[in-house]
Design goal:
eight-stranded antiparallel beta sheet; D-amino Acid Aminotransferase, Chain A, domain 1; 302 residues; nine-stranded mixed beta sheet; 28% strand; 17 strands; 2 domains; alpha+beta
């Protein structure tokens, strides 16, 4: 991964010159919040998917983590659009990061400055292009998702993802592509960086929003499914319901809509992308590529 420029505290910096001090607070303690955003090539040029919602969630994360973002929402939107142009991106991934910078290394973060960077680069399918049709292998992780009262489930806090890294490493070492984490009560929570959906008898299910990050792609899929006439329910469930589901898939800005063909060596449905997943996925990419005009408000054209 590499691009020409990174936006850093209000100015464009060469990619290789975008540096922080080794005693940056966030480097030691994970004291930052971030977003993952996609830009897509359309017949009207590059468009950022649901940019307003991503910026709003970034502000929510910063508020929960008691960080005041030193830029307006409009400043951030303009910086992202400018960065896409500077890096000549037709499509790609955008990573805003708000973090506690250099002052001291006490756990108290309030004396550290709030710094802000935005990176953007070309990035294809998160789990590989073939995964979008053939699906991936997943496993139930031995690591539980952090308890709802141990941190914040509604903020994309950098340090929260240590939990996900442990689960991801375990999955890779066990020969799976991705992990599914259960919550502290043993119910299905989400992937390491994705929300999860499953289909049984043509009903689409997902985990309740109060226990997981409120994914923007998750919200998009729920709205798309309702438009397509697919019933949607949110409920808590155990791992074994996934084993006997007709279809299971992940959603996320990076993962987009990635089907799961196997969990814990149980084949899911037909062992590849199922018909409902395919229908939702097709509509999703029609929207992100500007083909479906009904959802044009979800696109911010560069």
């Amino acid at each position: 991964m590499k691009a020409e420029k990174i936006w850093m505290n209000g100015r464009m910096v060469d990619w290789d010159m975008a540096k922080v001090h080794v005693c940056t607070h966030a480097l030691h303690y994970g004291s930052g919040v971030f977003e993952g955003i996609r830009a897509y090539q359309t017949n009207r040029g590059t468009a950022v998917f649901r940019l307003v919602e991503h910026i709003e969630r970034l502000y929510d994360s910063a508020k929960i983590f008691k960080m005041k973002i030193p830029y307006s929402r409009e400043d951030i939107k303009s910086a992202i659009i400018s960065l896409i142009n500077q890096n000549h991106l037709k499509s790609g991934y955008i990573r805003p990061l708000v973090y506690r910078g250099l002052h001291d290394l006490a756990l108290n973060p309030f004396n550290c400055p709030v710094d802000f960077i935005i990176a953007a680069w070309e990035w294809g399918a998160y789990l590989g292009e073939e995964a979008l049709t053939k699906g991936i292998k997943a496993m139930i992780s031995s690591y539980a998702r952090s308890h709802i009262n141990s941190t914040s489930q509604k903020a994309k806090i950098c340090g929260n993802y240590v939990n996900s890294i442990f689960a991801k490493m375990e999955a890779i070492e066990e020969g799976a592509d991705e992990a599914i984490l259960l919550d502290s009560e043993g119910f299905v929570a989400e992937g390491t960086g994705e929300n999860i959906f499953w289909v049984k008898k043509e009903v689409l299910y997902t985990t309740p929003a109060n226990t997981v990050l409120s994914g923007i792609t998750r919200d998009s899929v729920i709205k798309i499914a309702m438009e397509l006439g697919i019933p949607v329910q949110q409920k808590s469930t155990g791992r074994d319901e996934l084993y006997i589901s007709d279809e299971v898939f992940f959603t996320g800005s990076a993962a987009e809509i990635t089907p799961i063909r196997e969990i814990d060596r149980y084949e899911i449905g037909i062992g590849k992308r199922g018909p409902i997943t395919e229908k939702i996925q097709k509509k999703f990419f029609e929207i992100t590529k500007g083909i479906d005009e009904k959802y044009k408000d979800w696109l911010e054209f560069v």
